[in-house]
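pinging the channel bc i need a second pair of eyes. not urgent but kinda urgent?? the chain im working w is below, pasted from the shared doc
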Amino acid sequence: MFPEYRDLITKLKNTDRHFTQLFDRHNELDQKIKNMESHIEPGTHEEIEVLKKEKLLLKDELYAHLKTVSTR
């Protein structure tokens, strides 16, 4: 995710608690979605779609945060 910000992501994961929480939640949702789609974990199509939308909102928030920090 966001290879152009790889170094900044590493830095923020060590220094920015809010960013780390968003990043971790995004990864948790990604894994949960994969598990549901693979039938490792139960989930309806509707539940998966809700999780995907939440994940996308988090991704947008992460990107906005990265852009803001990178221009400082």
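so The helical segments are 6-15, 17-37, 45-70. and Residues 16-70 form one domain. — does that match what u expected or am i reading it wrong
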